[in-house]
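User: These chains co-purify. Model them together.
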Amino acid sequence: MVHAQDPLPSWNDTSTKKAIIDFVEQVTKEGSPDFVKPEERIATFDNDGTLWAEKPIYFQFQFAIDRVKALAPQHPQWKEQKPFNYVLTGNMKALLADGKSMMALMAVSHSGMTTDEFNQIVKEWLHTAKHPKTGRLYTQMVYQPMLELLTYLRANNFKTFIVSGGGVEFMRCFAEETYGIPPEQVVGSSSKMKYEIRDGKPLLLRLPEVQFIDDKQGKPIGIEIFIGRRPIAAFGNSDGDQQMLEWTMGGSGARFVFIVHHDDGEREWAYDRKSDVGRLDKAWDEAVAKGWTVVSMKDDWKTIFPPLRQ
Amino acid sequence: MVHAQDPLPSWNDTSTKKAIIDFVEQVTKEGSPDFVKPEERIATFDNDGTLWAEKPIYFQFQFAIDRVKALAPQHPQWKEQKPFNYVLTGNMKALLADGKSMMALMAVSHSGMTTDEFNQIVKEWLHTAKHPKTGRLYTQMVYQPMLELLTYLRANNFKTFIVSGGGVEFMRCFAEETYGIPPEQVVGSSSKMKYEIRDGKPLLLRLPEVQFIDDKQGKPIGIEIFIGRRPIAAFGNSDGDQQMLEWTMGGSGARFVFIVHHDDGEREWAYDRKSDVGRLDKAWDEAVAKGWTVVSMKDDWKTIFPPLRQ
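Assistant: Joint model of the two components:
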């Protein structure tokens, strides 16, 4: 007897893996009452904590911190100026004490340049910065089981989207190469921009103002504005994903969502209700109450991170 | 000798048609110095005046007017209240005298309902409302040569997008069926929304506030935020498209844009520099100065509208 190749080899043979495969077979089998036309097979993925790690701090925050350090020599006044002095003296506790300090760093590091310049800066950082715990590049801090899920869904004619609170242009700098998700399928938070002609060349300048926040209630709104179709599958890991999962499950026909629970302190990090980063509290309660799948990284995932290429 | 079937049969054999075909062959021929990988073959189309007509007024304005008329019995006070009384007495001149009146009608007709309800209302209107001059459904007021161009580009692995000042959700009600453009490839203006759970069901409420205006400078910004890649081809007809065409031509490698000039008063409408709707003035000057193609509807198009199905 010949078995088809396992599409999800980094997933243990648990009920979670079975639930994923059952759902995909259910919606792709022609003639089945739950068959979904390929163009409506929309699957949305949160990024931080779902496709890649988010500890000790969101990687985009680390980018902002590294950027402020790189710019500091041109801004000697930052030595005396909050919150920049927190960065320069390594006072992470003060920096993360309230949301305002990080937002100030985000504004400085993410605006005042053209979109092309910003993309270049992010790509350089992604090619050089290393994660403090693992020493991996940040793009190597992605979850192997989730990469397999992306591939499996696309092989079944799903269109895979990122729907994340992260910056849309930041994520596009690696989403295509790392996840196989093209720029036009990345939905995220965005800054305002200004269109300008300089020396006869058009350019887009990034402004230090928020255009759209794609988090919590913003996720179903982002899905509606950017994608215009309700997903039939959605994957998240925190309270920021709760509304996206509700919105996905609220449609008719077969639907599937799961929440990744970070319960593997040995191979990754263990955190949930009390974590500042990627808090999973209300969404967990709703998942339990409604019978949504909760993925245990410890039990459901055979491996966490992809093997490093030699 | 066998000729391949003409991909653009509704285009006359003019230099415009040749320029389109030359460009497509140039970027799709493997090994050519101008070859563009399929995933980067992004083509953006304005909608009003480029894919469908826009006279005597933008069709979405006509929808708003018809909607106000339909709602009037529930709002007896509108008889005395500007700008609603303009609609009810047919005073189009007063209604269009300034932008504010139409914006008030747009707010009333486009908000206060869920996204699902709004889509239903628009679809009903599209299935019943007739154009005052031709008696056609509005979705039959599309340009046959442009439908062929969409098909031709897609056959050559272009990804076709709408990038229009029109409402993104309004356009999605017909873009897939009429143009073969799926919801996630429609970029447009949007309203703010509110996410809410009602009777245990999640819904999105449309609010009477603007989220994003996808016109003029907003078009390259919309392209950057929604698509995240610079188009290699773009098509418009008015000053509202000027920045999108500049942005498209500002990239490196082979690029192609054109402006549709409405110069056929007999088969369609003739208007340009002095028109309130779809004014073509500065963009025309730039097209001439930079050698962008200007399509003459009169000379370049064999037919304007598609034949009506029996």
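Chain A touches chain B at residues 39, 42, 115, 159, 168-169, 172, 182-186, 190, 193-195, 197, 201-204, 211-212, 217, 220-221, 224-229, 243, 246-247, 250 (CB under 8 Å).
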